[in-house]
Amino acid sequence: ETGVTQTPRHLVMGMTNKKSLKCEQHLGHNAMYWYKQSAKKPLELMFVYNFKEQTENNSVPSRFSPECPNSSHLFLHLHTLQPEDSALYLCASSRMTRVADTQYFGPGTRLTVL
Amino acid sequence: TQLLEQSPQFLSIQEGENLTVYCNSSSVFSSLQWYRQEPGEGPVLLVTVVTGGEVKKLKRLTFQFGDARKDSSLHITAAQPGDTGLYLCAGAIPSGGSNYKLTFGKGTLLTVNP
């Protein structure tokens, strides 16, 4: 039991839809992350939040909008996505963002954009 | 440009065989982590290596960090079907102040046949 949950596990949406991905961690961590995992590509870091403040935006298109209302919850709001945005979106958390802080991953949301 | 190159990309072996997978870079990392990811799940941390030349053992798995902290290897002895999965290496790089972020390789997909 990783302590990081993600909902929904699967999502199919059209290009004009608006949807949100949710991540919750039960580990008492202060840092949370969004990653994108596409076929034949390395895991790509999208956003980092540390103590609810965004500390990293890895040149992510504005059609992806993160929200971190508290240290336990992280959302990724999606709008007007493209088919190439179809991927596994993984959330992770860690105690902080120091070099020795282990990241714990959730099971991911498999997103398909039609 | 991909910072971390993993090889081989795919590996299919019989139960009981030994194998080694590699993670190489031209960059120096503050630490290097190995994860295993099973279908439908997020990556799970296996080990973190920090010191150049460090060797860590986890049952039948042996991890080594290169002397220059640019590369790493994972050796599995007497592989079992339960070892099947995607093996990811990730290097920690500074991201400002005392903060770090992970950069991942594409992974080695290992299949151990009974």
Fill in the keyword field for this structure.
heterodimer; A: 114 residues; mainly beta; 7-stranded mixed beta sheet; 11 strands; 0% helix; 56% strand; globular; B: 114 residues; 6-stranded mixed beta sheet; 5-stranded antiparallel beta sheet; 58% strand
Give a short synopsis of this structure.
The complex is a heterodimer of chains A (114) and B (114). Chain A is mainly beta and 114 residues long.
Structural features, described:
The complex is a heterodimer of chains A (114) and B (114). In chain A, a hairpin with a 6-residue loop joins strand 4 (31-37) and strand 5 (44-50). Chain A is mainly β and 114 residues long. Helices cover 0% and strands 56% of the residues of chain A. Chain B is mainly β and 114 residues long. In chain B, strand 7 and strand 8 form a beta hairpin. The radius of gyration of chain B is 14 Å and the shape is globular. The model of chain B has no long low-confidence stretch (mean pLDDT 94). The chains are: A mainly beta (114), B mainly beta (114). At the A-B interface, strand 5 and strand 10 of A face strand 4, strand 5, strand 9 and strand 10 of B.
N→C terminal distance of chain B: 37 Å
Please describe the biggest sheet of chain A, giving its number of strands, its sense, and whether it closes into a barrel. 7 strands, mixed
Number of strands of chain A: 11
Oligomer: heterodimer
Helix content of chain B: under 10%
Uncertain residue ranges of chain B: none
- The fraction of residues in strands of chain A falls at over 45%
Terminus-to-terminus distance of chain A: 32 Å
Task: Kindly provide the radius of gyration of chain B, computed on alpha-carbon positions and rounded to a whole number of angstroms.
Answer: 14 Å
Layout of secondary structure:
The complex is a heterodimer of chains A (114) and B (114).
Chain A: E1 4-7, E2 10-13, E3 18-25, E4 31-37, E5 44-50, E6 53-57, E7 64-70, E8 73-79, E9 87-94, E10 104-105, E11 109-113
Parallel strand pairs in A: 2-11
Antiparallel strand pairs in A: 1-3, 3-8, 4-5, 4-9, 5-6, 7-8, 9-10, 9-11
Chain B: E1 5-7, E2 10-14, E3 19-24, E4 31-37, E5 44-49, E6 55-58, E7 61-65, E8 71-76, E9 85-96, E10 99-104, E11 108-113
Parallel strand pairs in B: 2-11
Antiparallel strand pairs in B: 1-3, 3-8, 4-5, 4-9, 6-7, 7-8, 9-10, 9-11
